[in-house]
Amino acid sequence: MTQFGYAGNILKVDLTENKISRLETREYSERFIGGRGIAAKLYWDFVPPETKAYDPDNCMICTTGPVAGFTGFAGSRWQICAKSPQGDRETFSYSNLGGRWGVTLKYAGYDGLVIQGKAEKPAYVIIKNDTVEIRDASRFWGMSAFEATDALKAEHGKDFSILTIGKAAENLVVFATILAEDGSSGSAGLGAVMGSKLLKAVIVAGDKRAVAANPDKLKILARQIREIHKIADHDEGMWRINDSFKKHICYGCGVGCGRYVYPYSNGSKYKSLCQAMMFYFKPVMEYNKGKDNSETRMLASRLCDDYGLDTSVMHGMVDWLSYCYKDGTLTEEETGLPLSKMGTPEFIEILTAKIASREGFGDLLAKGTIEAAEAIGEAAKKHLGYCVATRNSETKDYDPRLIPANALIYAMEPRRPIQTLHEPVSYLFKWVAWASKREHAFFSSEAFRKFAKRIWGSEIAADFTTMEGKALASKKARDRAHVKESLILCDLSWMAIWQDYFTRNMDEPALECQIFSAVTGREVDEEGLNRLGERNVNMQRAIHIKHGWKGRTDDQMMDYFFTQPLKKGELFCDPECIVPGKNDEIVCVEGSVFDRNAFEKLKDEYYELRGWDVETGLPKSETLNNFDMKDIAEELGRRGLLK
Questions:
Q1: What would be the CATH architecture of the domain defined by 273-386?
Q2: Domain 9-205, what fold?
Q3: Which of 16, 80, 342, 523 has the greatest number of beta carbons closer than 10 A?
């Protein structure tokens, strides 16, 4: 029987046993939709809690969503999930990628791929429809990510989509990335997991297509989105440096964003987008006395993709190195780095090479900025608050001292949850433009309050000077993000692009639930779809608790949010630190810190809203049962991890 919207199977590859098997998607999709939701349940089923990130029993799980393969919805994103080696604990984590690899996996007949075990020697997996093989990758091992992609394409042909790792992952750098073609990279240290399995690549080709339950309705929705997109107010030229830069839309997107590609002298094309193009910006500007050098920034981004280094970690690390060099905590002699030339091509070339190869001081940096600072001592640790925002050493952004609802989002996710954080900051961007009296800005405090009531549950959620309404806003934002991460809808298009339209059309039903129903045939309204997202939040929480997350005790932010006053110019998203206050007030929160007691009270309120135990933060049996998760509740109960 056809399951609308899905390929129907999940592929499981055991590298140790050289064994291929298949699971039915239906066993997972009915409850958990797809994407992160299905990946979480697969992880629950196959990864024992005592497993370490680099153990063969750890699973690398790739999943698409039901919207993948249906054009026009920016829905061809996909997830990689595994136990990550990154940060202050090893736990289930995730990354979100674009390009065409995920859709191609679905075209091959699979909604997901589970890779477990460890190969005896470097290997790669080749998938073409029903044919799946594990092959020797010794000749590709040691190649950079770009080199391996080109070599695999040359050997197998253009029909295959390539997922591979670079030297950083082979050498188990804890923040190593995975690279899919079109420059799509997966972070959270999952490249190191792939490297630990001696798995160089997974290449996929297929010619199957999933079937929608209501294709006519889907066409109408796609047309509606195209019309909205025409009037959406978003800057598509931000990452276009010169005339050689061309717009690049991910396969099957049909919507587009600000993503560009540019040609290079070797004949290849590389991406230009967002933080990856800006992580080296500050050093470049300082070295060049206030002048930008885009060629150097482009080089920095290419090097990170080629070696497989997470730019969100490199960003904070470079800033931290700069602080430490300027105050004498680190010297060129002891690090072997040309710190006086930070901002030049020479510095970033040497830095990335040393980290990827774990050479000299690069071996310490390969463990992440926080661990490096702790190894050096207090003089180095004092700079962390200006450089990193998460337990994974990821860069500063979307600070909870500025956006209080983000405190709970930071505290309860294993990594920088950028897909969730983008929602409140996208509204703040629009409001700051209005508050700054920029031409054509329309997102006033009044509009913000109406929008907050619609999506966060209360008008007061738009008042950033109070904690009132913030627990509910965080809950709703996370539920919606887990829907988005399961369908999967592109974070750059949902909801940031649509806010301009829906501010003027507040009462229209959400498009997400209409798309989900048209694809799968499961009739669900906005509230019902968000409840499915809430189930997936509970699934992730259950995993973390099972694998050692100590509930309330471990729901924490970086300490400096409570002790270090916010400074003007500290945050790129709002350098003047202005936020909406009560009614139409424009308030500057420079000098603010997050109150510890207020944070604990926020957790109290949040746990109540979730139906979790307030004292411990552990799930309750009744709550999980209400989400049709009796099997999950029973296992947590047997382990003494349920209230």
A1: Orthogonal Bundle (1.10)
A2: Aldehyde Ferredoxin Oxidoreductase;  A, domain 1 (3.60.9)
A3: 80
